Amino acid sequence: MYVRMFTRRHVVAMLAAAASLAAIPAAQANDAYPAKPIRMVVGFPSGGAPDILARIFSEKFSLGQPVIVDNKPGAGGNIGAETVARSAPDGYTLALGTVGTHSINGALYSKMPYDMVKDFTPVILLASTPNVLVVHPSVPAKNVQELIALAKAKPGQLTFGTPGIGTSLHVAGELFNTMAGTKIEHVPYKGRAMAIPDLLGGHITMMFDNLPSALPVVKEGKLRALGVTSAHRSASAPDIPTIAEQGLPGYEATSWFAVFVPAHTPKEIVVKLNAEMNRIFTQPDVQAKLKTLGLDPVLGTPEKLAEYQRSEIAKWAKVVKDSGAKAD
User: How many CA atoms lie within 13 A of 36 on its CB side?
Assistant: First the structure.
């Protein structure tokens, strides 16, 4: 009897020891993260706000491995977001998500290649920015009311370009049409880099552009800014009035940018990434650069992003339904 009890006791001890040893590699793996280069996928071409934020993160990352920015434009950012959704949940593939890829597109596309919520784990809400309505200098309208009058006098003749169907800039234009009672035609491009040359050349009338991207061109006098899409004027461009204060009260279409990883990524890795991004984007030189670009840092916890995303999905689903906009 004594021998049997002794044997069982040792078996239990050995099993416990084996379990402890099995847990060590997993713990060490999380502690060692990152052990190889990290890929930050941006669903838009270089030059826009998502790309700018990704490259700041890449340049300032201090956890011992390089961050490679991978631009995968197309389908309103869906191609890039799907790439991350289908990647291994190990923290080595990140999505620079936008209001389009993670709140608008679910309502705009009849068939989505990913679930905006279930296929991702939120990491951090990096920044937000108002969009700005810009027109070619040849357009006679000097303010929003004059543009609305011009559009109503020439229904279907004015055009607004966007970086793609389903982007925040597309929905900003659809919201404008709905609230102003105009019929300005949407002309989608495969990214901002393709749309801007046509606008500068006068081939399209106008564009809703992210403020960071548009400000340099506006300051050069190549485009005219008529109004920002936020509820209040931007500190980066206080001389540009809001669209809301020019006869469209309640008009608001703000862009935001956030980082997501594939669903089921270990919490320890999410926490480590969140801490590093909070560190990077609170640095004085980074904050100064963001302000110059018209980007307002938000930051905070993964839970803060998750809550904000839920509210944005509900908001834009209503806008898309009311406007009748469809991506396919």
Answer: 6
